[in-house]
Amino acid sequence: MTGSPDRRPDDAPEADAPQSTAPGRRRVLLAAPRGYCAGVDRAVIAVEKALEQYGAPIYVRHEIVHNKYVVQTLEKKGAIFVEETDEVPEGEIVIFSAHGVAPTVHQEAERGKLATIDATCPLVTKVHKEAVRYAKEDYDILLIGHDGHEEVIGTSGEAPDHITLVDGPQDVENVEVRDPEKVVWLSQTTLSVDETMETVDALKGRYPNLLSPPSDDICYATQNRQTAIKQVAADADLVLVVGSKNSSNSVRLVETALTHGAKDGHLVDNADEIDEAWLEGVETIGLSSGASVPEVLVDGVLEWLAQRGWDEVEIVKPVDEHMQFSLPKELRRDLRAEAAERLRA
C-alpha cells in the first residue's frame, strides 16, 4: 500500500507499484527484498561464531561471500582467506564458502588433517545433490551457469563426466549429448531468471524431452530481488545496485533493471563509487543491493543521496521474504556441547 512519503528508510511507505512523479520531485524507490539472503547470512554468522568459539585465526577457502566490505570486516576479526586448502596449516579449521565446493576439496582437506565447517548455501547443496542423482542415472546434465564462477566449479565437480556447461543461450548450438532422450538441465542459483528461461527454451528447441529439475534451481532470493528491481526500474531514471563486481547476483540486478525500463544503471560497492554526473537530469532513483550486501552499505548510499536532495524514500515491496537457515552442523554440534558444559558447571 502506498502512503505519504517519509524521509526515514525504516519507516518509508510501501508502494504496490511505482507511481508517476511530478516534475522536479526527487525521490528514491527502495527495492525490497534486498541485501542479505538466508544463505549469505548463515555463512557470515558461521565465520563469526567460529571465531568466537575457537578463536582466531579461522581460515576460509575463497571469499565467504562476494562482497569486499564483508570480507574486510571478517579479516579484521581474525579470518584468513585463502585460495586453496593447501595454504592452511595442518590441524587448523577451514570454512568452505557459501558457493560450495567440489568433492575433491573435501578430500584435500581430509588429507591435510583440517577441521572443516561447510557453509555452503543449502540451496546450492540441493543442486549438488541433483547433479549426483542424475549422474548416477546416467543423464547428460546441462548446467546453465557462468564459466569460472565458484558455484559452477563446485557443482561440476560432483559429476565431471556427465556435466556440460551452458553459458547462456548463445552456447546452445554447441551443446552435444550422448542420448537426446536422456538430458536434464540444472542451473547456477544466482542467474537472471529471464536469461535462464531463454536458455532453457533454446535447449528444449534442440532436445524436446529435456528434463527439468524437480524444483527451481534459481534461489528464492535471486528471484525476489529481480522481481523487486523490475518493478522499481519501470519508473526509474537511474538505478543503483550496491554490490561487488564479482557478485553474480548483483551484476544480474543491474542487467535486469536496464532491460525493464531503467534509463541508466550502475553497480557500486558503496556510496564513494557514485559519480555525481550520473544524477544529471535525474528525478527518480531506484536502489537495491545484492544478496551478499549488508544493509549498512545501503544506508550509506541513502545518506549520500539525501545530502544531494533525494531525501524522499518509497519502499517497493512486491514480495515478502522470511527464509532462514540453521548454522552448519559442525558449529551446531560444538555450540550445543559448550552449552551443555556450561549447564553442568
Features:
345 residues, alpha/beta, 6-stranded parallel beta sheet, 4-stranded parallel beta sheet, flat, EC 1.17.7.4
What would a concise description of this structure say?
With 345 residues, this protein is α/β, with parallel strands linked by helices. It is built from 10 helices and 13 strands. The N and C termini lie far apart (53 Å).
Which structural class do the helices and strands define?
A: alpha/beta
Helix content: 25-40%
Instruction: Sum up the overall morphology in one term.
Output: flat
Order the strands across the largest sheet as they lie in space: 1-13-2-12-10-11
Low-confidence stretches: 1-8, 16-22
The largest pleated sheet is described as: 6 strands, parallel
Roughly what fraction of the amino acids lie in strands? 15-25%
Overall mean pLDDT: 92
**SSE string, helices as H and strands as E:** EEHEHEEHEHEHEEHHEHEEHEH
| End-to-end Cα distance | 53 Å
Give the beta-strand count. 13
Helical segment tally?
Answer: 10
State Rg. Answer: 22 Å
